[in-house]
Design brief:
six-stranded mixed sheet; elongated; Rossmann fold; alpha/beta; DNA-binding; 12 strands; homodimer
Chain lengths: ~350, ~350
DNA sequence: ATGAAAGCGCTAACAC
DNA sequence: GTGTTAGCGCTTTCAT
């Protein structure tokens, strides 16, 4: 089943069928209707590959993420797809699994499929990727990497602002001994967040205590492990900030496991605001990274460049603080022992 | 940059380049190596669309799911992709968003992209889809719909077995007044689970009380709303079974909100075993649907048909019960009032 | 073992 | 407004 058969049945040329499908040139309503009928009747679906080959445009955008299993991403993917569909484009998603090798595969896939643009939303750093794509005239947008060019844009999330809000909030509740559980330092996002924590503390005149900064893995397990260590300290912190929500959720688990309560004994703050942060016990106070906005920006940035010929630029996205119930007045008891 | 340029540079014909890339015919090691070098040097990536068009095979499988935002799916997607990649195939994922219209779009997309097979893992029912695809010789695999044919397979999850285990477990803890919060009845999976609950209760000699069966939406909000209603009853249940984990998590939220405790006042059981069920407070006892097994089966079923020419068949997948801490001995007080 | 050339299904000039 | 036809970049006979 192909366009030629449709053309024959409708007694027109393949060009006309193509015109009706794409609306690329005026066709008399009469024949147009006849063609549509025929398409319908024959259950004809134009072959995308032939279309791409013929036109040179794939109408497809690539979205590279780290791991679809990380709750941060699904919503991002969904929003990106939704807005792409609104613009008549499709999306192919690829996971790097946090691995460099897989990143190469992802890139190859994008190149082979001739995407019209690529959003690289992984937090691993790959600045040189910009060249690979822009060299081929493919627009690209990064998250938190800072490289912009003729066809490459960059989205900067203001983690600093969000973390400042969190520290302020904790300070106002009387916390001074605040721990930070970071993500893996290979991740740009983890670095940025850690740095923001450090300078935020200093800005607030609070002590940045190196031993209160542990490294997690941006997953629950790392948060749990790090928190367990923090709880074993002689002078433990009264509040903990996790580099992401999963980390914070793991920390809450460890706190409960130790027989302590959140927030009465220890306050916990996360970062990201994934949906399930609403459903932890207690619900998690967290720094919200607006993923929908992020996705929208990423797509529109790409689309603007590939369609309008706009040039790449930097976009800023603000973070906010979502107050829920995992933070409270600083506990007097910062040394181990029964709570309160 | 195309295969012709590579051919010229390597002083061979395009056919030879193609042979080297695909290993479809013997090429002398000497020229093969020269071609590889050239490909490397020129950074040549073969155009997938041209490849598909020329060969008639896309090396791509489609995966249709309801909503990537539903935690049940990401892991499924990941496993499916991983095993596909192992077999040298790629995957395109499409979301229906639980909407019939979007399902049409998904199907169209698959058809237009000439996928070699489609896994339809949504729980909405679309039996006629089998025809659309098998009519075109495209293998297909369904989840819980029961239609099998020459090129269409079916995966049946034994929810019944899992739910029986859950009911048994609750019965052994002294529960007799067990509520069920179902999913939307348009979903096959919701129907199957509901039915399994009903017959499971009867099999155990427990009363199936219609008013204790409410309808949720397979998301937290529905679980919360339904649970709130259950809590307002004169004689409220001592245990609740949710049609999925999200529902159960929402229910737990409502119970806490009412100042009651899980499991001391009410026991809660979920279904699916999404990762975050480990991190609710208390951790959720749930019926585990092995998604990795499901994904593997789905892919291998498809692959077997499209490659080996095997015929479609039915596969069964067992569910199990994961005991965590949201279930406990039945509370004496089944009427409202202070707990215990 | 290698090359020449005919498609694959569509789009886009270019005619009329 | 509509038809003709030359590509698009690759695969795959069919020769040699």
């Amino acid at each position: 089943m192909n366009i030629l058969q449709v053309a024959k049945q409708a007694r027109v040329s393949t060009a006309t069928v193509s015109r009706v499908i794409n609306g690329t040139a005026p066709v008399s309503e009469k024949t147009a209707e006849r063609v549509r009928q025929t398409i319908q009747r024959l259950n004809f679906y134009p072959n995308t590959h032939a279309r791409t080959l013929g036109s040179g445009k794939s109408r497809m955008y690539g979205l590279i993420i780290s791991d679809i299993t990380n709750p941060f991403f699904p919503e991002l993917v969904k929003n990106f797809e939704d807005i792409a569909v609104e613009h008549g484009q499709e999306v192919i998603v690829a996971n790097t699994n946090y691995q460099l090798k897989r990143m190469e595969m992802c890139v190859r896939r994008m190149l082979e499929r001739k995407v019209d643009g690529v959003a690289i939303m992984t937090s691993e750093m790959e600045p040189h990727l910009a060249d690979v794509f822009s060299h081929r005239g493919i627009p690209i947008v990064f998250l938190d990497t800072g490289a912009i060019g003729a066809r490459s844009s960059n989205i900067e999330v203001d983690y600093g602002g969000g973390i400042d809000l969190a520290i302020e909030h904790l300070a106002s509740l009387g916390h001074t001994r605040i721990a930070f559980i970071s993500g893996p330092m290979e991740l740009k996002s983890a670095q940025v967040r850690h740095h923001a924590f450090r300078s935020g503390m200093q800005r607030k005149g609070l002590p940045y205590v190196a031993e209160l900064v542990l490294t997690g893995d941006h997953r629950t397990e790392g948060g749990r492990a790090a928190m367990t260590k923090l709880l074993q300290m002689k002078r433990r912190p009264t509040a903990v900030l996790g580099s992401n929500d999963l980390t914070a959720i793991g920390a809450i688990g460890a706190i409960h496991q130790a027989g302590l309560r959140v927030p009465q004994d220890i306050s916990v703050v996360g970062c990201d605001d994934i949906e399930l942060s609403n459903f932890t016990q207690p619900p998690l106070t967290t720094i919200r990274i607006p993923r929908n906005e992020l996705a929208t920006r990423a797509f529109t940035a790409l689309f603007a460049v590939s369609q309008g010929g706009e040039t790449g630029r930097t976009y800023r996205i603000d973070a906010s603080l979502v107050l829920r119930e995992s933070t409270g007045v600083a506990s007097r008891k910062s040394t181990p022992g029964k709570a309160e």
